[in-house]
């Protein structure tokens, strides 16, 4: 699950950047995929990851709170490393 949460976090960060700067991407939809040109919003990453994890766990009828307890210690570390970038 965490690999998919990572991908959803990257997609969330990029999509939020595209949404906030939609005038830069109008008329050039291929530019949305050019992640190497910059443009990730850090709070879009956790939002995308959390929404995906919530959907994934609900689909499989898993307990959301037990999973969040198990990743609660890793989240601040991930945030700190993300802030360094």
Keywords:
mainly alpha, 0% strand, globular, 85 residues, single chain
How big is the Rg? Answer: 15 Å
Count of strand segments: 0
Order of helices and strands: HHHHH
General form: globular
Number of helices: 5
Tell me the strand percentage band. Answer: under 5%
Query: How far apart are the first and last residues' alpha carbons, in Å?
Result: 24 Å
Helix/strand-derived category reads mainly alpha
Largest sheet entry: none
Helix residue percentage: 55-70%
Average pLDDT, all residues: 85
- The unreliable regions are none
Structural topology:
Elements: H1 2-20, H2 22-25, H3 44-59, H4 64-71, H5 74-84
Helix pairs in contact: 1-3
Question: How is this structure best described in words?
Answer:
- By secondary structure, this protein is an all-alpha fold.
- The chain is globular.
- It contains five helices and no strands.
Summarize the structure.
The protein has 85 residues and is mostly helical. 68% of the residues lie in helices and 0% in strands. The protein is globular, with a radius of gyration of 15 Å.
């Amino acid at each position: 699950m965490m690999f998919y949460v990572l991908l959803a976090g990257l997609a969330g960060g990029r999509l939020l950047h595209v949404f906030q700067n939609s005038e830069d991407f109008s008329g050039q939809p291929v530019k949305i995929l050019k992640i190497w040109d910059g443009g990730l919003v850090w709070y879009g990453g956790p939002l995308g990851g959390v929404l995906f994890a919530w959907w994934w766990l609900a689909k499989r009828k898993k307990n959301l709170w037990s999973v969040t307890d198990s990743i609660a210690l890793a989240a601040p570390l991930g945030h700190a490393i993300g802030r360094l970038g």
